Structure formats: C-alpha cells, structure tokens
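re: ur question from yesterday

yeah so i grabbed the chain u mentioned. its 199 aa long if i counted rite. heres the sequnce exactly as i have it in my notes:
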Amino acid sequence: MESEKLLNDLSQQFTNIPGVGQKNALKYAYWLATHKEVALNIKESLENIISRVRICKKCFNITTNTDEICNICKDTERDRTTICVLESTENLLEIETASVYNGLYFILGGLFSPIYGIETAIKRIDYLVSRVKEENIKEIILVISSTTEGDLTAQYIKDKLKNSDVKLSRISSGIPVGANINYIDRKTLIEAFSKRTLL
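ran it thru and got these structure tokens back, copy pasting raw so excuse formatting
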C-alpha cells in the first residue's frame, strides 16, 4: 500500500535522530499523518531552520548570523582566554542558563564512539588545538560525560595538548560515573563547574 510506504519512509527519517528507535519513529509518523496542522507547523519550522540556522565557524554553536560567527564568539566582554569544551549545543544552553561561566565555548559534536565514529570529533579537536596556539588560550574546561566514551575523548584531548602550557580541567564533583551531561540538573552542574579538577 502506498500509504504504508509513505509512513515507513517518514519513520525511517526519524530514526536518523539520535535516541529515536524504529518503534517510536513509526509512532511519530502515524501520529503526524492524522494531525496535519501540527505536521504543517513542523514543516514551516524545519524550513526556517534549514534556510536560516548556520553553524558557527569558530565554536560550532548554532547561529543565524550570516557571517557564521555566533554572538558568544563575537562578545568582547567574555573571557577570551578560557574555552569550555562541550559534547553538544544543548550543553551550552544549559550552562548559559545557569550563568556559571563567562568564557568561550567549543562544541565537539559527539564523543569517541563505536556507533557514531570518531572522525568528526578528531577533526574538531585538531581545530581546538590550533585555536589554543593561535589565540593564546590559558585554560580548557572539559564538560564531558563521565562515560567510557567521555573518558577516551578527554584523554585524547589531554594527549593533543600535552606540549602546550594550557591549563586543562574537567568537571567532576557531583557527576555520577557513567552519567550523561544532558541529564544533569542545573544545581549539580554549577557545583561540578566550580569544583572542576585538573587533568
């Protein structure tokens, strides 16, 4: 049946989103097929994101600035000698909301993972190392999950920076072993930030 094929095609697209499995993807597809007003609103939002949202060339945050430099990277009032390294843009939003940090950011876009690969993270870490050298960065703060993937990524960054004078630290206090940063509450994140440890 054509309708089943269309719904299967849509559900297949949803499975490209991290954390969305086949069962939920199919559920979303069937729900949207019977709620066309919501589907049209989602379509309009997606078109706006596709046409207007860009990735910052310096930190990989999202921005609508046409020069592809986000407002945080442009902000001269921020501490430009410190970079906070994060797994994802969602982590940045949480830290900005907590008002616990006033330096620059760098989004890895993922950790070393057998599922998602390591190429993107390696390329970005190489770029991070070049920024440390070129911009006279004094401190790097790693806000990375305390998982096997997070530990491997943190160790790789440490190895890449071993010949530099940059101070390298990682948040730890209050973050359970194996915990994903995306699920840490704001109070715990603030505490962990203030008691970060040197690597």
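noticed a couple things. The mean pLDDT is 88. also Residues 36-52 form the longest helix (17 residues).
anyway ttyl
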